[in-house]
Automatic annotation (TrEMBL):
This is TetR family transcriptional regulator. The keyword Hydrolase does not apply. The keyword Nucleus does not apply. InterPro entries: Homeodomain-like_sf (IPR009057), HTH-type_TetR-like_transc_reg (IPR050109), HTH_TetR (IPR001647), MftR_C (IPR041347), Tet_transcr_reg_TetR-rel_C_sf (IPR036271). GO terms for molecular function: DNA-binding transcription factor activity; transcription cis-regulatory region binding. Keywords: DNA-binding. It comes from Actinomadura logoneensis. Residues 1-22 are annotated as: Disordered.
Length: 214
């Protein structure tokens, strides 16, 4: 059972959530995105396994060593994005009296529509590769703890006044990560009635907040 979306705060939003990043990070992001777009185009045309780092570097007009400065592995060019710091910043801006999941509902209500407006095709391409290429899926699982789950654990523990290694904050961060992944793959597969992924994410978070009643 889902509750209604939290009230939007349009006056507090920038046109692009990535504008919240420092200038230096935005410059690095521009290069990262160019490399990623070339990589995804090559993966689409000749397959993931048929594409080499050298080919991606040549298409992006960089050296292979530059590629590896931005992406530690070929798999990382699929799974990496820049939204975790933005999510953490938005979370810290939420009213302190909100429970963690309610604060996250507001964060994703703001962030996801903006992500999808600019990056929906990119996100879909990445999800398809993650679901179909075993090495990418394995790398995604390996990187989750230091990525989105790690970011969630940090801000949840901070909000609750807990230690960074708090087990309850860790468990909640994994639970949130799980419902986010469930929403993304269900949306990609078209297996649910929700056409808007933001509404599907909110449904899943509300279900989690309610104690997962079945």
């Amino acid at each position: 059972m889902s509750t209604s979306l939290p009230e939007r705060h349009a006056a507090d939003r920038s046109d692009d959530p990535l504008d919240r990043l420092p200038l230096r990070e935005r410059k690095k992001l521009k290069t990262r995105r160019a490399i990623q777009q070339h990589a995804l185009r090559l993966f689409e045309s000749q397959g993931y396994d048929g594409t080499t780092v050298e080919q991606i570097a040549a298409a992006a007009e960089i050296s292979p060593s530059t590629f590896f400065r931005y992406f530690p592995t070929k798999e990382d060019v699929v799974i990496s994005d820049e939204y975790d710091p933005v999510m953490m910043d938005l979370f810290r801006r939420q009213p302190p009296e909100l429970p963690p999941i309610e604060a996250l509902r507001r964060v994703f209500d703001e962030l996801l529509p903006q992500m999808l407006a600019t990056d929906q095709d990119l996100l879909m391409a990445r999800l398809r590769l993650t679901s179909t290429v075993p090495s990418v899926r394995a790398r995604m699982i390996e990187a989750t703890r230091s990525g989105t789950q790690g970011a969630l654990k940090e801000v949840i523990a901070e909000r609750a006044g807990r230690r960074p290694d708090d087990l309850d904050a860790d468990a909640l961060a994994w639970a949130v990560t799980g419902v986010l992944m469930s929403a993304m793959y269900a949306w990609m597969d078209g297996a649910v009635a929700f056409e808007d992924m933001a509404e599907l994410v909110d449904h899943n978070l509300a279900f989690l907040a309610a104690g997962c009643p079945l």
